[in-house]
Amino acid sequence: MASGSTISFIPGPVNPSPEVMRALSEPMPYHRGEEFSRMYEEIIEGMKPLFGAEGDVVVISGSSTAGLESALAGFARDRKVVALVDGKFGERLAEISSLYAEEVRKVRSEWGKTPPQEELEASLDGADLLVVVHNETSTGIEHDMDLISDLASDRGVDLVVDVVSSIGGIEVRGDRWRAKALVGGVQKCIGAPPGLAPVMVRDWEGYGGAPYYLDLRRYRSSAVGDLKQTPFTPALPLFAALRVALREIHSEGLEARFLRHHKTAELLREGLEDLRVELFARSGELGKLSDTVTSFMVPNPEVVRRELAKRGILVAGGQGPLKGKMLRVATMAGITEEDVQLLLSELRKVLRSEISPEVLP
Predict the structure, then answer these.
(1) Residue 95 and residue 85: Cα distance in Å, rounded?
(2) Cβ pair 68, 143 in contact under 8 A
(3) What does residue 204 show for φ and ψ, rounded to 5 degrees?
(4) Residues 258, 170: contact at Cβ < 8 Å?
């Protein structure tokens, strides 16, 4: 979505709509009163269809990583955990789990590719919990959660899913996946400012608690009854903005929104192919190309990124070991087909320049 003369294709935080941003300046309600309770209840109910499940939704004032730790601290505690690691955020799930788990087994692959199915199957023998990133932002891979969740369920292994960069842009099927918990983000496909972590718990059995501020049981207890509250002072302006963002999502309709994200991603990939630009990520047994983040390789990626920024186009570079080796473009939230066409036009100009002329015919 354009902001002034700049269009940001950064994979979060995205630029929220003007209506969402205006909500940040609304008068703040009393956080223990009926007005906030109504706001929070609307957010809770608005999030459930995005999670694709029925369960207890709570919202933590903190980053998505806070939400991930709140879930993993309870469900990974003293258990044998398997983490699917084929990108930065799969690695993060493994790192958080290692703080609480008895054991963490990492099923690894080269970043941008998914591990073989048989390796994941073998790792699940004797495991208690599988932790997976639905949509790996660092590489642009969407994992096949229908398949992965079946592999876990067939072996009696619990599941916690990071849906931070998919929720609101790609269908999340929490009930179908039989997940214990799902952790979302508001600053990506939902199109709200960063700073809140929505968490859904479908099944509390086995939740062993978390550090004081992150204990999801406190949030559940505060959100029941006539007044829906949070156990600690909430980031009120961010709640107000999230409510507006959710209203925009449901006004558009989830099916229409998912289709729009798919079409913009397809348009981007087709345009990159026309430019003879090689995609970085590869579809595999356990995943396919993401509809919210596309990664690709060009000569001198950081130079290309800076040149695009001069033209009012913001894209992201690689993370971790991929820094300086590729670029990432997000088709999240309010990004339109017109935005993608402009990006491709400006990228063509940059690639035709003296920076990397060998890319184009």
Answers:
(1) 11
(2) no
(3) -85, -10
(4) yes
Cα–Cα separations (whole angstroms), residue 22 to 5, 110, 122: 19, 43, 51
Mapping DSSP to helix (H, G, I), strand (E, B) and coil, where does residue 342 land?
Answer: helix
CA–CA separation, 105 and 87 (whole Å) = 15
Please answer whether residues 354 and 342 qualify as being in contact, where contact means their C-beta atoms are separated by less than 8 angstroms: no
Mean pLDDT of the chain: 94
End-to-end CA distance of the chain: 31
| Contact call for residues 278 and 352 (beta carbons, < 8 A) | no
List, in order, residues 6 or more apart from 178 with CB less than 8 Å away. 149, 153, 159, 202
Residue 353 pLDDT? 79
Location of structure tokens 């890319």: 359
Structure token pair of residue 327: 């670029």
Tell how far CA 153 is from the center of its chain: 23
**Residues 21, 245: Cα–Cα separation, whole Å:** 9
Between β-strands 129-133 and 158-162, what pairing exists: parallel, antiparallel or unpaired?
parallel
Separation between Cα atoms, residue 154 and residue 149, nearest integer Å: 8
239: confidence class by pLDDT, cuts 50, 70, 90: very high
- % pLDDT > 90, the chain: 91
DSSP structure string for 127-181: -SEEEEESEETTTTEEE-HHHHHHHHHHTT-EEEEE-TTTTTTS---HHHHT-SE
As beta bridge partners, residue 59 has 198
- Give the count of alpha carbons within 13 A of 137, CB side only: 26
- CB-based contact 1:342 (threshold 8 Å): no
Q: What are phi and psi of 194, to 5 degrees?
A: -70, 160
Six token digits for residue 287:
């995943």
Backbone dihedral region of 214: left (phi > 0), alpha (psi from -120 to 50 degrees) or beta? alpha
Q: Is residue 297 classed as helix, strand or coil in its secondary structure?
A: strand
pTM exceeds 0.85:
yes
